[in-house]
Amino acid sequence: MKHLLTTSELSISEIEQILSEARGFKAGESWLPHNQTFVANLFFEPSTRTKCSFEVAERKLGLEVIPFEVATSSVLKGETLYDTIRTLESVGVNAVVIRHNIDNYFDELVGKTNIPILNAGDGCGHHPTQSLLDLMTIQEEFETFQGIKVAIIGDIRHSRVARSNADALVRLGAEVVFSGPQEWFDESMRQNGHYENIDTAIETSDVVMLLRIQHERHSDSDKHTAEEYHRQYGLTIDREKKMKPNSIIMHPAPVNRDVEIDGRLVECERSRIFKQMENGVYVRMAVLKRALDQYQGGVNNVNDYQKRLLAY
Amino acid sequence: MKHLLTTSELSISEIEQILSEARGFKAGESWLPHNQTFVANLFFEPSTRTKCSFEVAERKLGLEVIPFEVATSSVLKGETLYDTIRTLESVGVNAVVIRHNIDNYFDELVGKTNIPILNAGDGCGHHPTQSLLDLMTIQEEFETFQGIKVAIIGDIRHSRVARSNADALVRLGAEVVFSGPQEWFDESMRQNGHYENIDTAIETSDVVMLLRIQHERHSDSDKHTAEEYHRQYGLTIDREKKMKPNSIIMHPAPVNRDVEIDGRLVECERSRIFKQMENGVYVRMAVLKRALDQYQGGVNNVNDYQKRLLAY
Amino acid sequence: MKHLLTTSELSISEIEQILSEARGFKAGESWLPHNQTFVANLFFEPSTRTKCSFEVAERKLGLEVIPFEVATSSVLKGETLYDTIRTLESVGVNAVVIRHNIDNYFDELVGKTNIPILNAGDGCGHHPTQSLLDLMTIQEEFETFQGIKVAIIGDIRHSRVARSNADALVRLGAEVVFSGPQEWFDESMRQNGHYENIDTAIETSDVVMLLRIQHERHSDSDKHTAEEYHRQYGLTIDREKKMKPNSIIMHPAPVNRDVEIDGRLVECERSRIFKQMENGVYVRMAVLKRALDQYQGGVNNVNDYQKRLLAY
Questions:
Q1: Is B284 annotated as a binding residue?
Q2: Which domains does chain C have, with CATH numbers?
C-alpha cells in the first residue's frame, strides 16, 4: 500500500522518483488509470491551495472526484475517522486525500484500511506534498541540493512545513538553518539545523523560506503585533536587498502580506511563491499515480486517449 | 414518471426488478444514458454514506452531477422546495435526489414537477434505497425471503429504515419482529410484526438488523445512557455468541460503537455492515437507471464505450 | 482578455454577438475547448440559480469545474481575493466565475490577473449574465427591442438587475420606465428612464419586469410589510388582467410569492420566469465560450465528439 504520510518515511530514492515523475508531468507527460477510479478529498481544515491543487491534479489524471464536505457529513453525528474511511472504501472510493487538525491522525487508519491515504497536512505535524513541491522548486532552480543553504524562517513550532522540509533537505545534502522568534524554535529541530540571527540567515542563504504566522494556533501571550513581527523577523524591502545574487524567496502561502514578507515582494523577481503552487499540481499528480499505479494499474503517455477525449 | 418515493409504493415485481438490475450492475453490467444527463443531490441533512453512494452510482452511470450545497443556496433566502426543484429543472437538471428532514416532503412536488425525484430519506418516514440495499444484502445471503426471520432492533419509532423495511420484508414473505425499548415500539407497526424480547429476537432470527439510536431526535426524558442501552438492548459479545448459525448482523450505519453493537463486532464474520454499503451503490445505480431510462433513454452493457472512455 | 464584468462595457455589437451565440446553443450547436480546461465558481453569496446555471453551462462545454467553497477556503484565514485568484491561476484554473457582495470587487483584479473573470453579480452593482438572459428572453418574444416598453418594478436601488438591464435596453432601442416605492427610485437612473405610477406602468408595457425585494439589504425603517407591498406595488391578479395583450411577465427569481407577484401568476401563461432560467444556461455558455475561445481555442459543432463521448 503506497500511502503518503510523512516526508520522513520516504527514502532519498523515493523522493527522487516522485520529483522525477513530477518533472515529467510538468513537461507534458500523462498517466491515466486503466479503470474508472474514484478519489475523495477530506479537508477537516480550511484550505484553498492544497485542496484545489489536488483537485486539478486528480482531474488531469482522469480520476473521478467524490465531493466530501465535512460540514454535511456523518462526522457531525459522531462518526469516527476510521468508520468514515471504511465507508468511502465500501462505496468504491479508491484513494483518500486527508487534511486533519489532529497530529498523526493516520496512525489509527494505517494497516486497517485497504485504500491508500495521502496526507494533505496533519495538525502541526507533516505536510509531505508541500515538502515535495518545495523540493521540486529548489531543484528546478539549483539542479542540486548539495551545498544549498536554506533558511526556514518564522513560525517553526507550529509549522508542518518546517519539520517535513528540514528533514528531507538535510538528507538530500542541503544545509538548513532556522530563524524567526527564538522562543518559537523547537529544540527537537536542532538535529536538522541550528538557529541563526535573521539578518545573517537572509544574507547568506540560497533559499529564504518564509513560514506563515498561524494566528489561529497561538495563544495571546505568545503573539507579536504584525508591525513588530515584520520589523524584527519579516522579509523587509531592506533585507531583500541584502540577499545573495540568485537566491530565491519561498512561502507556502497563504501569505500574511506585510507580516512575514513585504507585500511588494510577493511577486518580485526572486519570488517563487506562485511557481511553488504551480509545481504543487505536478507533485500531487506524481504521488497520486504512485498510490494508484500499483493496485489499480494505468498507462503512461496516453496521448491518443487525450487527443480523442480531451483535445479532440 | 418513475419517482422513487417510498418502498411501500413499489410492487413486489418492481422490487424484484430493481434487485435484479442491482445484481447485474454488481456483476459488471453497465448502462449509460444516450445524452449528457444532469442530476443534482439535495441533502438537507448530514449524510456521508447515502450522499457518497449516490455520487459514485451517478458517476458509474456517466451522469453529470451538479453540486447543490444547501448552505450556499437560495433556500437561505426563503425559496421553497418546489421553486428550487423547478429552478433545477429549468436549468436542465434531469433528476434530483433529495434527503429532507420533513416527512413526505415530496407530496408538494409530485405531479407538479417534470423530473423524477429519488427520495434519499425524509424525516422519520421513508428511505427506500436503504430498504432496497438491505433487501439485496439479505437476498444475496439467503437467496430467498420466504421463511427468513428478521429482527429489527432499536429506535423503531424514529427510524426511516424500520418502516420501509418491515413493510417490504413482509410482502416478500419474510417474518419480521421488533425489539429494543418497548416504549419506542410504535403500535402502527404491529401490522408487520410483533414486539419480541431482545434475547429471543437475537437468538431466533436469521437477520439481526440493528438501528442507529438517533440522539438528535430524542427528548431528554426519553434518553437511555449508552452503557445502559448497550447492556439492555445492544448486541453484546454474549448475545452474539447465542445467534443462530449462519445468521447475519446488519446496521444502516453510522454505528454508535458500543451502544447498538459492541465495537468489536462491527467487522466480525457475521457482520454485513460494510457489504450493505457496497450494495447500496448498485441499488442506487438501478433506481437511477429506472428513473432515467424511460424518458432519457440509454444503452445497456456499453463495454466498448467503457473500454474506450474509461478503461482506455 | 475577454472578461465579462458589466453590461455597460459591452458594445451593442458584442451584446448581439453573445445573444446570437446563445440562440445557437439553444438550437443545439456546441463548442468544446481544444484542451482540458478548468474553471472555478467562487460564490461569496448564496445562489441556486446562477451557480447551478453556470455549472450546467460549463459541463455542456466539457469544462472541468473545480469546486471552491468559501466556507472551507483560505479566505477564512484572511486571504485577499487577489491572492485567491492568483492561486487558482497558478494551479491551472483557466477562468473564474465570481459572485461577491462588494461592488466592483473586480477593480482590484483586472489587469493584474491573467485569466478571464466572469462577473456573476457584485454587491448592488452589476449582474451581466442576468441582463443578457433577460435580453435573450425579450428578443425571443418580440424579435426586436425597437419600440418595446419595459417596466422595471420594485427594489431598484438594491438591484443589480435594474442597473444592468436599463442601460442595455435603452442602448438597444427599448423604452424603460421604473416603478415601485418612489423612495427606492435612484436619481442616477433617470438617464435611462423616468418613474411611472405602478398601474400605468403595468397597463402600458410590453414587458413587466419585477424585481426581488432584497430583505437582507434593507434597514428596518425602510421596510414595507409583505401584504402592504403586494397591494401597493405587486403584480396582483387584478393588475395582471389589465396588462396589454401579448405582454409578458419577467422576474429574476428567487420569487417572494405574494409579495412582488401573486403566487398564482408565477407560472401563468404570460410568465417567462422559468424560461428566463432556461435561457440563462445558453447565455452563460456563450460568455464562457467568448472568454475561453481566444486564448484556449476550441471547436464548434463537435457533433462527432458528442456522439462518441456523450451520446454514445
A1: no
A2: 12-127+277-309 (3.40.50.1370), 128-275 (3.40.50.1370)
